[in-house]
Design goal:
Elements (H helix, E strand, L loop, with lengths): L14 E2 L2 E2 L7 E4 L8 E5 L6 E4 L13 E3 L7 E3 L13 E4 L6 E6 L1
Antiparallel strand pairs: 1-9, 2-9, 3-8, 4-7, 4-9, 5-6, 5-8
């Protein structure tokens, strides 16, 4: 008797879209709606400010439903989407927000 086998495609190519928040207090698009998106990872590189992310297609903002705060500080502020996070039916943009201008972040998608 053969059992069904499910395979999950692992990321083969990561695309780097790292950068900085351009204007404090204004959300910006970190990643436009991308049909090829399977998952992403993001790290807050600020030592002092929280980085807010909205990965549901809405606009990121502090303490707002749909937004997730990524804490500052020496590598502890990181978030990775679960495997198979985005399906072709849920292609949305990812928005970021900070109260700090030039707030650095590392972000990769696959």
């Amino acid at each position: 008797m053969a059992f069904p086998v499910t395979t999950t495609q692992s990321p083969t190519t990561k695309h780097d879209v790292s950068g900085t928040i351009t204007t404090a207090g204004t959300a910006q698009t970190a990643l436009a709606a991308t049909p090829a998106l399977v998952g992403y990872e993001i790290q807050n590189l600020s030592m002092t400010h929280t980085l807010w992310i909205n990965d549901t297609g809405g606009t990121a903002n502090a303490f707002t439903p749909g937004s997730i705060g990524i804490s500052p500080g020496s590598g502890s502020g990181a978030l990775q989407s679960p495997g198979g996070y985005v399906s072709s039916a849920t292609i949305v943009a990812i928005s970021l927000y900070s109260t700090q201008s030039a707030h650095p972040f590392t972000m990769k998608w696959w």
